[in-house]
Amino acid sequence: MENVVGIDLGTSNSVVAIVEEGVPTVIPNKGGYKTTPSMVAISESGKRLVGHIAKRQAVTNSANTVYAAKRLIGRKWDSPATRTVGDSCPYTIVRGPHGDVRIELREQVYSVPEVSAFVLQELKMVAEQYLGSAVEKAVITVPAYFNDNQRQATKDAGRIAGLEVIRIINEPTAAALAYGFGKDFERRVAVYDLGGGTFDVSILDIGNGVFEVVSTAGDTFLGGEDFDIRVMNWLIQVFQERTGVDVRDDRMSLQRLRDAAEKARCELSSVRETLIDLPFLYTTASGETHHLQETLSRDQLEDLTRDLVDRTVSICERTLEDASVGVGEIDDVVLVGGMTRMPLVQRAVAEFFEREPCKGVHPDEVVGLGASIQAGALLDENPELLLLDVTPHSLGIMVHGGNFHTLINQNTTVPTSAGHIFTTVRDNQTSVKILVLQGESENATQNELLGEFILSGLREAPKGHVEVKVTFSISADGIVSVAAQDLETGREQSITVTATSGLTEEELQRLVEASQGYMVEVRASEEFERERQKVEGLVKEVDTLFPQVEGIMSGTSFGRDAIAKAQGVLERARREMKGNDLRALGEVTESLERTLNMFRGVVTKTNLS
């Protein structure tokens, strides 16, 4: 039976999970942790580092360590979010050839889907090691408020990593799946998801195996990173006031401050105040050193970040209005994401929803578990689990005057279809250009352009006399199709809207091939390491027996020859362990096993006699 995993590709941490014997289970990584930092680094030697090993060296290699890549995935270079990330991160972002965002590490430029693929590839290998077999398919979660380009970029990341992404599902929806899985109840649930980089809230009706999303909203640039930046900026200001030094241009100092801000923010979820101690934070050109030692209280943290929490509450309020649901109609509130451990967040949620949030889910693992449940349902074609999701953004076209005409409103259950009849706006107009847009602004230029096409061959006539019907369709997989038909002649033109991640098909194919080559190298390296450890163990056993065997066999020329050969085998083994020739190491293993068997036989025979 093939393996299909669920993956929560998070801003700060990622999770891979699978359903085993009907139970969703998070797969621990190589270090035994259930979450893997979504961090990627390139070492001085050019080696790729992912996860905890990348995080541990972030301070000393800050310019070549990427964190929070999810905040950039699928975004355009001229996006305000791109500028914000560029101003606060120690790594370098550059403009891509297609107006997308790229990241420069060690003089090599990477696309954001490629960097995200490094994390996914690590999770893929973790799952394969745990399961003992190949993993080629996955369900991957995304923030509910991601647009089509961001979703496509996530799919491309999966493809580069060697995964067939069989479904993209929203993070709050995945959390609700995990929360309601196996429970026989009917509940209306609000999922409040505040993670490392994004915020989502979804209202769902759960009952009899049906998970129906009623409404969803969010902010794809609001999360723990923003809280940490507030603390980091406060520390920078305090340090500058006391020393006269502005450390904003020192990458190592910025990375140390960022790590300290994150650590302090986490600690203040359980203590009232914490000490931030950074000795030798900055050294001037003249050699003068400056240290930072500052106490941050929970009250100060809440003052610094209260407006961020208030923004999440405003979005919750809008979501309930869109769903035409009152606070009193919500049965349960589920908290998702590491930021929901913050006491201010918990108080704000409890006050708004007028009830204490549920404590029965793990905020860091629940989304990955939900993704694995959806993966298992798709694999087994389980008819007892039905997921009805909604489109997070309105879809429509640009009309005369640059206005946006909505055909499918946000929070419409998919699959769905809708049409509208338009007329020509100029005399003797023989063609119309259809611009397909996604967003909520009445100004078409402020929304996301998904695609465009032209319907030509219209009859020449006074304006308003020729009618064109435009029809939008969205499949259960979120594929958008748009058709325009001349109602007089029946002539039709249509497109299937394919969102773009900023990568061409040629670039994608090249990255897929490079990823496959990397996997071959990694597996060969892992196999060599396993064989090296085996050889190391055999060498220790032979070394342990050597003095005893030498005392028994050194009295004859045959014995001395056997001992000399054994010494030669040991010397070769120590030499090959330092190399990288797997075949030679395998030959050494065989020689060591023969030598060890001979040594054991000599010792056993001597003891018996």
Automatic annotation (TrEMBL):
Kindly indicate whether the keyword Chaperone belongs to this entry: yes
The terms under GO molecular function for this entry are: ATP binding; ATP-dependent protein folding chaperone
Tell me which InterPro entries the record gives.
ATPase_NBD, Heat_shock_70_CS, HSP70_peptide-bd_sf, Hsp_70_fam
Q: Does the keyword Chaperone apply?
A: yes
Entry keywords, A to Z: ATP-binding, Chaperone, Nucleotide-binding, Phosphoprotein, Stress response
Q: What NCBIfam families does its record include?
A: PRK00290.1
Family of this protein: Belongs to the heat shock protein 70 family.
Name the chain's protein.
Chaperone protein DnaK
Q: Which organism is it from?
A: Plesiocystis pacifica SIR-1
